[in-house]
Write a sequence for this structure.
């Protein structure tokens, strides 16, 4: 064992106990220094966990390939292990803590033999902020250590915090055999513990992210009366220099990263907007003494979707990932740089695909489907500070005040481009009834519409009916509650093509949202909420017919009747736990849709 850097007995005892179980050859404490990171990189190159990219073109950049069946979060293997099943709710897979520990212990037993166990002390949120939470992850994966060093604040400063308090999330991870049949992602909110085994992929193993910052944190947040959400946070600097912040919840791979760092479109540039990125995935939000909602991003890096990222869709990200980036499951070009579907350049004439096989454009598999160079859920890990639009308030312990909460989904039909809730309670209903087409971010059928309340369905660490109640209560405690909106960039026409150009152009919709927050424009009342008057969306420089804009904002009663049926079915799953306020909102919506015919 290398030097123990802590006097914290609870931490030392736990590390010892887990080492006895996993039987590593050695224990290494992560101090978070550049020196240690470089050593880990060198070792990872030797073991082939990482491939070195061209260090002139892409300094500090590496490529990692996962196992072919370990490419996304495995929700069916993810469990909330509370003593009572009811506390996990119908939204979660549940296992009793006793049987979960027992099952996983069998897989962890001796799993680190021949390997090193790394001890990663990490802070979610600025070190020392009273809003931050500390975790310690034990892992036998260098890839995990290197990713955690980007995504969270790690090392000695965090251990120093732990000298004074005993409160940390115990996170145990082992790749074990990377066997999908022996893979478990277990959360024990009552023990402040996470056990993940058998995977080496992103959200399954970077335990500070979805496991701690959403599933465990949401459980804690309900008790401590704050919100842990799957939301981006961005600042929109108005021409007069004033910055308004919004938080937006879209399901996985539905556009958070892209929106959080957008560059204003040509037509609006003259107005002088500037975007500041605070976060692209997770927001922790509290009611402050001023009665407003304040948010921090607990992470310090992006773990973003590569395919589709190019200098048109996301120029800031293209700048961000030129250095210090770990690429996962993208295509390796013969010049030792990387490529993915939807990158700036045409497909290279040859390369090595995400599974490590020789690749050429136009290749087809046995079923006749195109063979992709990069996996659709290929990602990059990169520090936020690389981003040209990184907010200057990232390290501020207090975060930023939120003017608007924006919910959004990927819906070919039903949901219009944008609408506004009548009030907080109605806004909670809109969030609770969100739905979206499945993406490649989780294992399962892509395209299928599923309910994904507040984009938190896979991440709420307790009974979602209680989560809805918590949201309703939060509104009552906030004299200056943000306004709530819903957006949908993904409406399609008869031919299945997106009507709205999206990406940079989304600022036009945010502009309306802020105008509404500042009572600058009136709106049209519809059955589902307020929608913009056509002339209130600034279309300068955008070629989109008025006809199409009308189509984007259309609220079709026939579609909403169908939607109501689905919402009812979804709500019924929560039985008596569903807050009556949401059933009231349901009835109100039903009535309004009927009145509209
Ligand atoms: P997670 O990291 O999984 O939580 O996802 P995310 O919400 O941050 O998604 P991201 O911004 O990475 O976007 C995922 C996919 O959506 C990419 O393929 C984007 O190209 C696409 N996308 C993002 N914004 C838009 C948009 O405005 N319009 C359209 N049509 N596609 C978009
Ligand atoms: C998501 O799936 O929402 C992500 C990526 O942000 S992962 O970290 O794998 O959860
Ligand atoms: Mn996410």
């Amino acid at each position: 064992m290398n030097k123990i850097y802590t006097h914290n007995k609870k931490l030392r005892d736990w590390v010892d106990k887990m080492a006895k179980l996993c039987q590593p050859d050695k224990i290494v404490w992560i101090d978070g220094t550049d020196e240690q990171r470089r050593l880990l990189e060198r070792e990872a190159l030797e073991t082939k966990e990482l491939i070195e990219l061209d260090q002139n073109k892409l300094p500090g950049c590496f490529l990692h390939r996962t196992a072919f069946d370990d490419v996304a979060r495995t929700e069916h293997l993810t469990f909330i292990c509370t003593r009572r099943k009811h506390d996990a709710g119908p939204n979660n897979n549940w296992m009793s803590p006793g049987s979960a520990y027992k099952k996983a212990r069998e897989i962890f037993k001796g799993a680190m033999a021949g390997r090193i166990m790394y001890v990663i002390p990490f802070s979610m949120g600025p070190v020392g902020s009273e809003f931050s939470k500390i975790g310690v992850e034990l892992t036998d994966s260098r890839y995990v250590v290197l990713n955690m060093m980007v995504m969270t604040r790690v090392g000695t400063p965090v251990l120093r915090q732990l000298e004074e308090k005993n409160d940390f999330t115990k996170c145990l991870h082992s790749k074990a055999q990377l066997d999908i049949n022996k893979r478990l992602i277990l959360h024990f909110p009552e023990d402040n513990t996470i056990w993940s085994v058998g995977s080496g992929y992103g959200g399954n193993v970077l335990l500070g992210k979805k496991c701690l910052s959403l599933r465990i944190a949401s459980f804690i947040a309900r008790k401590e009366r704050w919100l842990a959400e799957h939301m981006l946070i961005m600042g929109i600097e108005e021409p007069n220099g004033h910055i308004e912040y919004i938080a937006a919840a879209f399901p996985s791979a539905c556009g958070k990263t892209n929106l959080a760092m957008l560059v204003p479109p040509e037509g609006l540039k003259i107005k002088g907007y500037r975007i500041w990125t605070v976060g692209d995935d997770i927001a922790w939000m509290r009611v402050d003494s001023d009665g407003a909602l304040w948010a921090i991003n607990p992470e310090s890096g992006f773990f973003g979707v590569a395919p589709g990222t190019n200098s048109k869709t996301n120029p800031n990200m293209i700048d961000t990932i030129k250095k210090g980036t770990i690429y996962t499951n993208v295509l390796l070009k013969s010049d030792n740089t990387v490529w993915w579907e939807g990158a700036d350049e045409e497909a290279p004439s040859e390369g090595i695909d995400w599974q490590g096989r020789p690749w050429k454009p136009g290749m087809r598999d046995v079923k006749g489907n195109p063979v992709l160079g990069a996996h659709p859920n290929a990602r990059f890990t990169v520090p936020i500070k690389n981003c040209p639009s990184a907010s200057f308030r990232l390290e501020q312990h207090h975060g930023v005040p939120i003017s608007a909460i924006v919910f959004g989904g990927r819906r070919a039909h039903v949901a219009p481009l944008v609408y506004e809730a009548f009030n907080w309670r109605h806004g909670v209903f809109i969030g609770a009834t969100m739905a979206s087409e499945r993406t490649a971010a989780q294992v399962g059928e892509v395209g299928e519409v599923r309910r994904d309340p507040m984009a938190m369905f896979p991440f709420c660490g307790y009974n979602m009916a209680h989560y809805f109640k918590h949201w309703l209560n939060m509104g009552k405690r906030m004299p200056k509650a943000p306004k709530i909106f819903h957006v949908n960039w993904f409406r399609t026409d008869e031919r299945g093509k997106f009507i709205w150009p999206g990406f940079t152009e989304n600022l036009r919709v945010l502009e309306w949202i802020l105008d509404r927050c500042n009572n600058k424009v009136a709106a049209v009342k519809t059955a589902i909420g307020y929608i913009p008057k056509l002339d209130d969306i600034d279309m300068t420089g955008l070629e989109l017919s008025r006809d199409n804009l009308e189509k984007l904002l259309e609220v079709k009663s026939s579609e909403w009747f169908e939607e109501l049926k689905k919402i009812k079915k979804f709500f019924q799953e929560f039985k008596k736990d569903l807050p009556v306020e949401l059933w009231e909102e349901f009835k109100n919506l039903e009535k309004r849709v009927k009145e509209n015919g």
